[in-house]
Design brief:
By secondary structure, the protein is α+β, with helices and mostly antiparallel strands. 35% of the residues lie in helices and 22% in strands. The strands form seven sheets. The protein has a five-stranded antiparallel β-sheet. Strands 13-22-16-19 form a four-stranded antiparallel β-sheet. Strand 3 and strand 4 form a beta hairpin.
Amino acid sequence: MSVPESSGAKVPGRVGKYVLGRELGTGSSGRVFLSHDPYFDRDVAIKLYLLEDGLSESHRRARRQPFFNEAKLAGRLRHPNILPILDAGEEGSIGYVAIEYLPGAESLKNWTQPERLLSVAAVVEIVFKLARAIEYAHRMEVIHRDIKPSNVLRTPDGEVHLIDFGIAIQASRLEEEKEDKPKLAGSPSYMAPELIVGGAANPQTDIYSLGVLLYELLVGRRPYEGKSLSELLHQILYASPPPLGKLRSEIPLVLDDIVAQALAKQPEKRFKTCFELAAALVGVSQNLETVSEELRERERFNLLRRMGFFSDFTYPEIYEILKTGHWTTHEPGSRIVSEGDVDERFSLIVTGAARVEQGGRALGRLQAGDCFGEIGFVTPAKRSVSIVTEEAAEVFSVNATLMEQASVATQLHFTRVFLKNLISRLARPRGGTQRI
């Protein structure tokens, strides 16, 4: 975002098609301003980066890197708990990205003060959603490297959004980074032990940072604190954090176990994936007797409303369809449908990926957002192909009979979008219209 105050650079009144309004905030990499997108008639947040300011070539490259990371890495991530990049560009010595504007959103840092802590159930829900978002980023080969409360926004209705991919790195570059001179990137208090001693970032280091965030949201202090940087780093490497229960009595012991695993000194002792951490938190939610089903329903609702198929449905319509549909989770290598089955379900891949097979031969691949089963939904028919998951996947299916339970208005809207989707598929070149 950065037009550093010390650089003397003037903030332009306009970048691209965006007229800059009031300043929303200043971060470690720059400044954010409110603006309005005249083409889509929506408010957006504009993050500014100073790309050239008379520095040496190496410093200019270092200054440009966060801008390119934000525009290219974060720009291809589409998840309900990752704030989307809507646009990006360069204007003279200024780089900018347009981000979805969230009115009333506050940084999670505001809920790390002892006098303003959230309930344990609310913290569990927040970190559950962040774990799912970070798991998605990892599947897209993006390592965030700077997970901390100030890089998470919370809206007035309780939704959370991960932001600031300025120092993120692509997984394919990890080996390249190992060969370079080790560079510390991120905030020391949230930095995994292996990074401090010169190791490279990877999914396990993001899991560690998420563990620090979880600890801080629960008790209002970080697991390790020092009067100096050297004292802080020594504690991260060798000390054990105070037990959560001693700092806040209502925290269940199981959360101590989860935090301890996330903060393990050795990466191999941490959760293998953020998905594992999220699954552990669902268990905590159930043990706390919170409305875990409501949490899952909200998560599913948010996943559906971000899909292209449901882009112009109202919130009540999506909830109504969610109630009449069927949600399934599949392990890698599972058959979602088999060739020869008679089925009348229309399905959407919500997360994960699957391959299309016929007679044991791969015909294609389905990713999150792709649909299948339109023909069977119209009239029960034998499946001509099998759908087999390539990775853990979630699938939302709508049965023609059960859909009749929805209101007439919702049925008509669904039918209109469904037919548009079917016509689009049938209009594809031969080979893309395989009945599945």
